[in-house]
Fold this protein.
Amino acid sequence: MTLAPGSVAVTAEESGRACPLCQSVARALAGEHPLFIAELDAAVLLLHEHQPLAGWSVLLLKDHAEHADLLADEVLARVHRDMIRAARAVRAATGCARVNYACLGNVEPHVHWHIIPRFAPPIDPEPRATVWTRPAEWLNRGVMPEQAAGTIAKVRSALGMGLRGA
Ligand SMILES: [Zn+2]
C-alpha cells in the first residue's frame, strides 16, 4: 500500500495480533467471518455486529492505517469508490431514505467507515440525529443469525455478487 509521507501506518502483518479490525479483515479474507459481505478493491465490507437499523455495514480498510487523512490519494480514491459502491448496495437492499457515512476511529483506530441506512420513524426513531445519540440498548442489540444472513444476501445481490463462495 502506498502511504503519504509521514504516515505512521504499519502493515497488517505487523499489527495483526494487536488490532481487532486487522483480525476481522483476515477472517473475512479467509472466508471465516460470519458477517462477511464482500471483498471490494481497497476494503472489505462486513455487516455491523449490531443491527438496530437493518443493513448497517462497516467498511474496513484491508491494510492497517490509523488516519484517513494520512492515506495516499490513490488509496483514498479506491476506498471512496468502495464506500459509494457499498452505499448503493445498502440502499438497494434496504430501501432506506438516506445513507450516513461515519469515519470516527475513537474506539478502533484502524481506518473504517460505518455505512448506516436511515429510515423514517418508527424504525428509525430520530432520523435527523446521528445514531450514536440513541440509547445503548437500542444500539447494542446484536443480530440474529437468520436476520444477518438475509441482509447479507440482499446486499451481496445488490453488489452483483452471488451467494457466499459463489
Ligand atoms: Zn488494523
Remarks:
- Residues 12-158 form a domain with the HIT family, subunit A fold (CATH 3.30.428.10).
- Residues 15, 19, 21-22, 64, 110 surround zinc ion (CB under 6 Å).
